Amino acid sequence: MSQDPWLQNHEANCRLAQEIAENIHERNRQQKTGGNPAKINMTLRASLQKLKQNISQLKEGLLRSSSSRRITQAEADRRQNLIDDLLSREKQLNATFKGEASGTEAHRSSLMTGGTSAAANPWLINETEESKGLSFGDLKQQQRQIIDAQDAGLEALAAVISRQKIMGQEIGNELDEQNEIIDDLANLVDNTDNRIRNETRRVKLIETKSATCGMWVVIVLLLVAIVTVAVWPM
Predict the structure, then answer these.
(1) pLDDT per residue over 52-85, tens digit each?
(2) Pairs from 47-50 (Cβ < 8 Å, separation ≥ 24)
(3) Segment 173-221, tens digit of pLDDT
(4) Which backbone phi and psi does 95 adopt, to 5 degrees?
(5) How far apart are CA 70 and CA 65, in angstroms?
(6) 19, HSE (Cβ side, Cα atoms, 13 Å)
(7) Quick check: 17 and 23 in contact, CB under 8 A?
(8) Domain residue ranges in the chain
(9) What is the CATH number assigned to the segment(s) 5-156?
């Protein structure tokens, strides 16, 4: 029996996350040894973006399977936990990648400007206001808050899906009851129709017998009259 496609996709994304972690480790090693990690950084950015998109596809697939009741509620909850774990790992990988990259770029900028100001680094002009002045620990805390907010949203979505499932079950039960009522009415109509047909046949049979008896009575009376006339003395 082949494995469920959703589970296969989840396993593939777990392997992708492991590959990203290994590439980040290799990138860090190259940085420490004075190598040029530009190429591996490009690969990491593409892989992280792909992992994010794949997780979104896993969410959509789980929502469709749960809404159509192709899987049980217990299995839906288990798969939601798998998505949550993978989502947390993806956020951690992003934080590690961006944290290490920001630290390296700031160090290079300081070397190029004689340690005057990191603001002169052209690679930092896209930094957001929320992340300016934050340490690596603060960035990790910020990422954790984002993950918690997303977890809360997923829990709310799970609650909505659970309510929809209950509503679907109630509608299904109501339809079953209505179908039973319709079946009972159909049986009643069939029984009534059969009774009417039987009574109609009985009435026709009685009419036929009555007509036959009446005819014989007339014949007998005629015969009696003929005999009477024949034997009666003139």
Answers:
(1) 999 999 999 999 998 988 899 999 999 999 999 9
(2) 47/16, 47/19, 47/20, 47/23, 48/20, 48/90, 48/93, 48/94, 48/97, 50/16
(3) 888 888 888 988 888 888 888 888 888 888 888 877 667 776 776 777 7
(4) -65, -40
(5) 5
(6) 15
(7) no
(8) 5-156
(9) 1.20.58
pLDDT-above-70 percentage for the chain:
77
Q: Which two tokens stand for residue 229?
A: 């006339």
Tokens for 213, please give them: 């008896």
The phi and psi torsions of 65 (rounded to 5 degrees) equal -65, -40
Secondary structure letter of residue 117 according to DSSP: -
Longest dimension (CA), the chain: 167
Instruction: Indicate the Cα dihedral angle 81, 99, 141, 159, nearest 10°.
Output: -30
Number of residues in the chain: 234
